[in-house]
Fold this sequence. Notes:
Elements: E1 4-10, H1 25-29, H2 37-50, E2 57-63, H3 72-87, E3 93-98, H4 105-113, E4 116-124, H5 128-133, H6 140-152, E5 156-163, H7 170-182, E6 187-192, E7 195-196, H8 200-206, H9 215-231, E8 235-239, E9 257-259, H10 266-284, E10 290-297, H11 302-306, H12 311-320, E11 323-328, E12 337-344, H13 345-350
Helix pairs in contact: 2-3, 7-9, 9-10
Amino acid sequence: MKKQYIIPIFVPHLGCPNDCIFCNQKSISGQKKNMTKEEAKKIIDDYLKSIVNEEATVEIAFYGGSFTAIDEKLQEELLQTAYEYIQAGKVESIRISTRPDAINKEILKRLKKYKVKTIELGVQSANDYILKRSNRGHSFNDVKKASKMIRWNGFKLGHQMMVGLPESTRIDEINTAKALIKLKPKMVRIYPVLVIKNTPLEKELKQGKYEPLPLVQAVEVCKELVRMFADKKIEVIRVGLQNTDEIAEPESKQSEVVGGPYHPAFRQLVESAAWYDAIVGKIKKLNVKVKEVEVTVNPIDSNNVIGHKKENILKLKETYDVDLILKQDEAIKQGKSKIEITKTYHDFLEE
């Protein structure tokens, strides 16, 4: 499988018709100035210089804001700039992210002209009340219409959803995942809500009107969502915002985060929790007192099985007095495992 590189170009807050309660795109992206075709070209050239694998696939991604709602002239300029790299054989495709209410036939025709391959929609929730409460400015019906149009026109569809929006519950988030699954995206991003400086949500936090999800609760909900999407063969391409100088521990001087379930290895916490459940589930099925369990996985999964800072090893020992032995086997597919009980207390007492 070829390695894929994504060249991210942020167009922060361009095209957004309103301010979502949680959003400050310039803080999230670290991009303080508006994007131009000259700046985009510089970013692409700099990234291409750093790619040493000549057989890798390269994709240009326009993130942030609402790409298809920005000024049409700038939109064309940015797309044309990216398309020139496709024509030159240096880049394989283009990806954009946008709002569900900024998709129509004419827009899709323009994107197809410039060989855009993937369109990600910022959905956030399937609950119209929560969308209104978050000042999203669109309904879930807009999501359904846009998703169908995108798929029917041959684009790869992606969805982005959030966990922990104001007044949203675990049931709301489970229902959002169910609703997205019905729309058949190829990929999903899951973002726990972080409270960012200079947003309406920061004001609500200070006023006591909003309480962010605790880290443990955010991990548990996201674990369930990841499993739901995986069961339907929908790829979860991100869980949690990417760590940057701005998206960091709230105590950090440069951090724009003031609250919420931030963790530098959030996805690992989620995936490790899922592996822990799988191991414990296997143990509980046996009518014996287990002393040692051997888990064989693809080397890529090793860290997640062990857990962040060996959390799974420690928790199994403390909770069940079970020793976890990890083995690696490249023949096992990523995400799959072989779990064997290698020692019971009966064996232990006979030794």
